[in-house]
Structures are given as structure tokens and as C-alpha cells.
Amino acid sequence: MILISSLVLKSSFVRSLGNCKTLSSFAMVEPKLIVFDLDYTLWPFWVDTHVDPPFHKTSDGKVYDAHQQRVKYYKEVPDILNHLHKSGFQLAIASRTSAIAEANELTKLFNWDQYFQYRQIFPGSKITHFKKLHSLSGVPYEEMLFYDDEHRNILDVSSLGVLCMLVNDGLNINQLYRGFDDFQERAVAKLKKKRKRRKSKRRPSRRRYTLDDASTSSSSSFSQ
Question: Cys staple from 35: which of 22, 52, 92, 187, with CB 3.0 to 4.6 Å?
Fold first, then answer.
């Protein structure tokens, strides 16, 4: 079983911070909402094309479609969702499939409904999905982390300020950690920039010594 109870501490970027006193207090920043696409992110097919309802689950827990074709998910996904949920993370779905009922049925048959607090499943730009997720959850876009397999969705959702991770060949633990690494790195970079601005505001301006100052000083010496 994959252990993810301390995701942020396990990420390579946070470990690389070491004993840095300046950043150590900031190293525990976590995404407030983690959002997943479905097709080719959590499972290896397009639900509106590659499988046919009705679906059913057998006594051994396997799911099949109308043609007795086995409906599978990516191997590491159940453990990832389970441990994220147990660690207290809020999870959501953002899918643009037109097979809304089928997608919802499969998440139920896979016993994933227990993990997701929010779901937005409908066709169209995922900007709309995330605006609804923001409205429902109250989580700022900058505090969301999104995993998806399509460049167009990454580009769209990134424009809102969401940190987006492109998934290749399905979600796995290494890609999950990479997302947490990037989230931490972005948060630390923002902190550095903020501190730099504060220092520049507090720094007193120094008066430059000019030629006029030199001539004034010489005149004063001569008159004495």
C-alpha cells in the first residue's frame, strides 16, 4: 500500500530546503483543494467512447460494461485517493465528458464517491468547472492543485491562477509528488518575492554625494 500520510514532508523539494530558517516555517503550505480529471487521468479510457453502459460489479469487486469488457482504473489511483482523503485533503473532480451519468456511475462502482467533496462533470471549457468549484468551496484559485492529461485544459485553468500538472499515462504517486513539489516551490518563490518587496520599502533612501555638495564643502572651508 502506498503511504502518503505526510505528503508535503516527503516531497523532494521540501526536503531540499533542509534547515533553512528563512523558509522552514513556510514549508508546510499545502493545496486546499486537489482536483482531478477523469479520462486518461484516473482511468485509461474515454467514458463516452470506449465503454458502454450499463455497468455492473461482480462479487469479486470487478466492474464490467454491457459487452462484458472489464472497466479498469489506473493501478495506483485508489491508494492515492484513499490516503489523500485520510490525510484531510479536500478532493474534487473536473471532467468535460458528455457522458455525465456514466462517469458518475463508475465513480460510485469504484467506491470513489467517499473521497470527493465536489464534482463538476459536463462538456465545455474547464474554466467554467473551476469557477463553480471556487464558488462552492470558497478556496482561492492559487490554493488549488489540478491534475489533467490535456494541454488545452492545463492552459485554460492555469490562466485562473491554479497550479496545473500535466499527467502522462495516468496518475501515479511520482506525478502526485511532483505536483506537491511544484506547489511548494511556487509558494516559497512568492514568499521570497513578498519579503524582498517589504525590505525594499523599509530600506532608507541614501542621498548621493554630488559635485554641488563638493563645491559647497570647499566654499565653506575657504571662507573659514
Answer: 92
d(CA 24, CA 168): 32
Q: Which of 39, 149, 156, 181 is catalytic?
A: 39
Planar angle of CA 61, 63, 65, nearest 5 degrees: 160
What mean pLDDT value characterizes the chain? 85
User: What mean pLDDT comes out for the span 121-147?
Assistant: 98
Asked if 64 and 6 touch (Cβ cutoff 8 Å), the reply is no
Q: Do β-strands 70-71 and 63-64 pair in parallel, antiparallel, or remain unpaired? A: antiparallel
CA dihedral (118, 127, 44, 175) positive or negative: negative
What is the mean predicted confidence (pLDDT) over 188-216?
67
Beta-sheet strands, E only, within 100-177: 118-121, 144-148, 163-166
37 is annotated as an active-site residue: yes
The length of the chain is: 224
Work out whether the CA dihedral 74, 37, 87, 15 comes out positive or negative: positive
CA dist list (Å): 179 to 76, 99, 137, 171, 173? 16, 28, 21, 11, 10
Model confidence pLDDT, tens digit, residues 27-56: 568 999 999 999 999 999 999 999 999 999
